TrEMBL record:
<feature type="signal peptide">
    <location>
        <begin position="1"/>
        <end position="17"/>
    </location>
</feature>
<dbReference type="Pfam" id="PF17039">
    <property type="entry name" value="Glyco_tran_10_N"/>
</dbReference>
<keyword id="KW-0732">Signal</keyword>
<dbReference type="InterPro" id="IPR031481">
    <property type="entry name" value="Glyco_tran_10_N"/>
</dbReference>
<feature type="domain" description="Fucosyltransferase N-terminal">
    <location>
        <begin position="59"/>
        <end position="163"/>
    </location>
</feature>
<dbReference type="InterPro" id="IPR001503">
    <property type="entry name" value="Glyco_trans_10"/>
</dbReference>
<protein>
    <recommendedName>
        <fullName>Fucosyltransferase N-terminal domain-containing protein</fullName>
    </recommendedName>
</protein>
Amino acid sequence: MALCLWLIVVVPVCSWGQRPEDTADSGVFQPQSALTDMEFASVSTYRGPGNTDPRPNNKLPILLWWSSNLFPHFPGDTERVDCAHSSCLVTSNRKVQLYRRTASIIFYGTDFRAYEAPLPRLSHQTWALFHEESPMNNYLLSHSVGIRLFNYTATFRRESDYPLTLQWLPSLDYLLKPMAVPLQEKNRWRQAGLAPVLYMQSHCDVPSDRDRYVQELMKYIE
Ligand SMILES: *[C@@H]1O[C@H](CO)[C@@H](O)[C@H](O)[C@H]1NC(C)=O
């Protein structure tokens, strides 16, 4: 019987997103026009490898992060991002919602609420979903009418546009490096009465009913 170990790591969003209260006070002093704000030369920049996009900030497409608890390009609320093939401005400033240049709106799955979605949808804008937490957090997204609202998805599903199945895996090496405990030692522990399989999960009673599956599996493991 193969050793099966599922280890599910749940990282609270607040540890790497930006909480709205961090920005609430400083927002009072921002210029009225978000666009002016974003075209300041001081917008900080992530320089990706090999990027040669010559466009100035005021010509770049804008990606709007809609979910207020999540803006991975902190500490500011706006940043120029240079990827390998082109550049864009990313922002969490909702004032840009109706801009022509705002090409896509990104939603965080756990926080997505239909009643606060930016409606009506503009025909030139796409919606993108970033959903890396438990499906239990938002049942709407487990139904095709819900998930089909999004033109691009990055989820735990292998079939999504940018699957996040292995996102917390540090490297391939991590999976392939030699087992920590030699087989002889494990066999000794088996003879001493220890179980052959360890199963770990982050919570119980999930809708996939995996608890019952594991209970059934236990019948076949000596
Ligand atoms: C994005 O998805 C919506 C809803 O399914 C659809 O109406 C729209 O045509 C799509 N836009 C693009 C550019 O694919």
